[in-house]
Design goal:
Shape: globular
Oligomer: single chain
Strand content: over 45%
Structural class: alpha+beta
Length: 241
């Protein structure tokens, strides 16, 4: 009888410890999430503060329907960014459909110029000011050979350039590694859902776009895939102390 009571007391004690420890575990998880989000915000701000200017070469390829081998149009452009000024594009070469060039690619780079104007650019940053962020369970995972945290992100305001999906960030410094999801708002009433993906690489200590893919379906154009490759970066950086 005594052993039975002793076992019951031990079991009750164990349950009490588990119940008491559960809130602490939840708080720890919340602290970990908050720490990762702070790391992301700090890395974005570091890039904003220290990248004074850059240029790169961007190659765009547009595919239609089921043909993912032969682009209907291509464009190569030089992107020039200056902090406090924005972006300007210089078209270096273009081939293929004049209609796709006029109504697809040119509006794409014009929109990039608009988004990156000083009055607009901060609204497109991947920060907690613009997105609700939630750390996904499962711990760090390997993305493009890097140890990363995955964050579920939801835009606080809907816009074509805002993505509803997953953000992967480097577990060491919070720098962006990859983003994937859908545009939170269609760019036009004729366009369907746009699936977007962008991969980043580390250049001189800062995350810079390396490859992007966007796929959409519309009433007018059907299935369209745009691929973008970013090369030949040259950065003007303010070095930290």
């Amino acid at each position: 009888m005594k052993s039975t009571r002793r076992f019951a007391m031990l079991w009750a004690t164990a349950l009490g410890i588990a119940a008491a420890s559960h809130p602490s575990l939840t708080r720890a998880q919340q602290l970990d999430q908050a720490a990762v989000i702070r790391l992301v915000d700090a890395n974005v701000q570091k890039r904003v503060d220290r990248v004074l200017a850059f240029t790169d070469i961007e190659h765009y390829s547009v595919y239609r329907g089921d043909d993912q081998t032969h682009p209907v149009a291509t464009m190569t452009a030089r992107d020039s960014y200056t902090k406090g000024v924005g972006k300007t594009y210089t078209i270096l070469a273009q081939t293929g459909s004049a209609i796709v060039q006029k109504f697809g690619l040119r509006p794409l780079i014009e929109n990039e110029e608009k988004i990156n104007k000083p009055a607009n650019v901060q609204h497109s940053w991947f920060t907690s000011a613009n997105y609700d962020m939630k750390l996904k369970p499962g711990g760090p995972q390997r993305i493009n050979g890097r140890r990363c945290y995955a964050l579920e992100i939801t835009p606080k305001q809907k816009a074509p350039q805002m993505i509803d999906g997953t953000l992967w960030v480097d577990a060491n410094d919070g720098s962006i590694v990859e983003i994937e999801g859908v545009a939170s708002k269609s760019p036009s009433p004729f366009a369907g859902t746009t699936h977007m993906m962008r991969q980043y690489t580390n250049i001189e200590g800062f995350p810079m776009a390396m490859h992007a893919r966007a796929e959409s379906k519309s009433v007018l154009f059907g299935r369209t895939v745009v691929l973008i490759d970013y090369t030949d970066y040259h950065l003007h950086v303010q070095r930290g102390r």
